[in-house]
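[09:14] KT: can someone run the structure on this one? pasting the chain below
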Amino acid sequence: MKINASRFCFAVAILILLGVSASSSLAQDAAATYKTKCAGCHGADGKGNPTMVKSLGVRDLSSSEVQKETDAELTGIIQNGKNKMPSYAKSFNTDQIKGMVAYIRDLAKK
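[09:31] RB: done, structure tokens below
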């Protein structure tokens, strides 16, 4: 069976574009979810709302302490909660949690 090289390249290009589009969409969704569900305590920049840091012990998500945690550890914290942070297992699906972990990683870069 002979494969048409130009059709193959076109198909690969479409798949790559779809992947980029999907990951871009997930990043936008994660940012929106963070803004509505997390920023109230963790602050828009992840460093913590000063009032919440004092009263609830909210951690700076951009700190090296948080950033050295594995993706699995961060996923567990989001799913199950930790200390005074509530569980989001019933609120977020698997993709949303993955997006939130990626968003937390990006907070350290800003």
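[09:33] KT: thanks! The domain at 29-107 is CATH 1.10.760.10 (Cytochrome Bc1 Complex; Chain D, domain 2).
[09:34] RB: yep, looked fine to me
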